[in-house]
What we know:
Layout: H1 3-16, E1 22-29, E2 36-43, E3 48-52, H2 57-64, H3 66-81, E4 88-91, E5 94-100, E6 106-112, E7 115-122, E8 131-133
Amino acid sequence: xxxxxxxxxxxxxxxxxxxxxxxxxxxxxxxxxxxxxxxxxxxxxxxxxxxxxxxxxxxxxxxxxxxxxxxxxxxxxxxxxxxxxxxxxxxxxxxxxxxxxxxxxxxxxxxxxxxxxxxxxxxxxxxxxxxxxx
Length: 134
């Protein structure tokens, strides 16, 4: 990467990461395979170092460090949102989430009283014949 790209990457990291969590430095690389510049990123809380050779490397580093950067609250909030927006349908008096699997078959699933309930509908979409429950 060029020096301008490295400087732009550092600015991007400073904008996207919480303040004071990541220290970044630019290093000049003289090896024949990777000439140019690289950015070393230090996660201060864990003392972990990652090297970005391309500007796109920041995305994977940010995903790997997500828990350490944003904390448990962000992960818990993401987990609690799962399943909230799913539309459920009433099947034999039980609200079920109905999905079409990769093999083309429609399946319903629910959990009541600690017991998993599953229902198989075949290849025909059953949602048009069922009552939607919010």
